[in-house]
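Support request, please re-run this one:
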Amino acid sequence: MSVIRDYFNSFKTEEMTDAINSIENQYGYVNSRNYFNMKSTGQTAIIFDVNKHNITLLPQVNRGDHSATQGKEREVDTFALKLAYFKHQDRLMTEDIQSWRAPGQEIQETLARATAEKLQDMRMAADQSTEYMKLQAFKGVFKTPDGTVVADMFTEFGISQTSIDFVLGTGTTNVDAKIAELKRAVANNVKQGGAISGIEVLVDPVFFDKLINHDDVVAEVNNPLAPPRFRGKKKENKSS
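Re-run finished. Output below.
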């Protein structure tokens, strides 16, 4: 802190404190996890193949019979998608520094500090844009921040989106049954060629609060014989 001249009376002095930084929240729910295998490209579009494996149950045949079932050729579908492009730039002019003091200080603004601040803001904007686009990928419809649809994966692959209403506004809803329905939908449509060891779902705060405060969930939390899925979770999430 430093003592400076009063803005309203040049014969008086005031004490200046450090500047208060007002910065938008920086979210990292998706960027902090290894959900995506990121690869760089110098092209404006990508092409990828979907290799469909034909896995069927084998019928029984007579041991002495020379005939056998025949495998089927794999089907390969090719898709092409345009890539979204983001370009962000800023500038620093002489008038942005000349006769200006650094925030929270009485000294002259410097080119180095002003440049570092500009670069930090640009990096944070890029990080949050990446977070936003990754979140859109989870939804299956790639929308840019201005609402432009880059790709609708449901339309591209010719599939319909499964929607499950948890009906959390009704106290008699069987939440366990809704979760089981969600698990079955994922298991039947994931097509990863293996068993599912677990499912992680990202939800918004409103849905989460309704879920943990639902009568069905609260009853399981307070039940010592309840499955470990809910027992003790409400208290833990409330304190985090």
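The radius of gyration is 29 Å. Residues 231-240 have pLDDT under 50 and may be disordered.
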